[in-house]
Automatic annotation (TrEMBL):
Belongs to the class-III pyridoxal-phosphate-dependent aminotransferase family. This is 4-aminobutyrate aminotransferase. It comes from Nonomuraea pusilla. Residues 359-423 form the MOSC domain. The keyword Transcription regulation does not apply. GO terms for molecular function: molybdenum ion binding; pyridoxal phosphate binding; transaminase activity. The chain holds residues 351 to 773 of 773 of the full protein.
Amino acid sequence: RGRRGPDPSLAARRAAAFGPAVDPLFYDEPVEVATARGVWITDVAGRSYLDAYNNVPCVGHAHPRVTAAIARQSRQINTHTRYLHPAAIELAERLTATCPPGLDTVLLVNSGSEANDLAWRMATAVTGRRGGLCTAFAYHGITEVTAALSPEGWLDGVRPEHVETWEAPDTYRGRHLDASAFAAALARLWERGLPPAAAILDGIVTSDGIADLDPAYVRELVRLTREAGALWIADEVQSGYARTGASLWSFDRFGVVPDFVTIGKPMGNGHPVAAVITRRDIVAELVGRATLFSTFGGNPVSAAAALAVLDVIEDERVLDRVRGTGLALRSALAEVAADHPGAGDVRGVGLAWGVELVTDPATREPDGERAKRVRDRMRHLGVLVGTTGRHGNVLKIRPPLAFDETHVPALAEALATALTLTR
Ligand code: PMP
């Protein structure tokens, strides 16, 4: 087959096939991808890009142990989940073994949205309430339930009646650092006659602009939630699976034990598999009241993929790598930012970093327009990053966990060049 070069009609065919509301592609010139391995993506013209953006290929693109597990299981059997098969059961056992006592029950689904949707449904059923809390620019999914908890994409920007939001901490501007915004959101729900069922938080608040949350802050949020008789959902879709380097889960960094842990994206290294981890007493309340069945959830091939990812995280000592690389990445990014006043803040943890661009470090006015240009310029320099935050002015650096210290200089150099060229 060999290299063929870009297909000039593909973008137009995509637009025609998916319609005008489909999410836009990344970059001024979208990358037409062909193959990938580790932290490298190769396009159809044979050019390689350092992937510093992708948290889905958690242990690296096309990890041979994951692809082998998928292939092996596909040849044996793949089916729905009404038969006995050890893979899903072993997966559930392995997941609960990574959690504190009490988080002993697993429901397997197919996407982060489904996991959050199910957690929310259980929370409302168990509490008999329907008020919900999320951060002010959160994203938790595409279903009706989870879209309501996703101000980033509310229909026409309108807040659903049962939801209240709180501003995530903005350490750069010293705003919203304590739990008072959360307490006020809780109070608003009560005032409106909507007792809270649950609060949901992404442990690195990715779509709000990325933050290394203070454990005491999160503990206070959880305390207030429980005091109000509500349940805590730790959305680990972005922050989980070793991303922060602390353990498999970001909630461990905070010293809290959630009522629900949800995970998707990285769990199958690109294969769709997701989960809710919760307590037996919560699930027991739903017996005979609701169906929690998913046709594909925990099918043997998905479970085999997820088991292989857990094996790799253990055997390759991924947590150690994330910790070491995270430190190297932080100092490299800080060094670049020191030379470029427009790069006002560098923040993050593990392998999740944000570089916030501002028009002027004195006013700290968000510069989303430049962030886009820097991102596109980096793409042309062969390094893929994203943007996030309410103003789209935070460069999102969130590579596969195969990213190591040897990759840091190339990323830092591309960032420095892009900042110079977009001044
Ligand atoms: N939660 C968070 C924090 C996410 O970032 C996302 C996806 N961006 C989701 C949930 C939804 O996951 P999915 O797209 O797999 O449904």
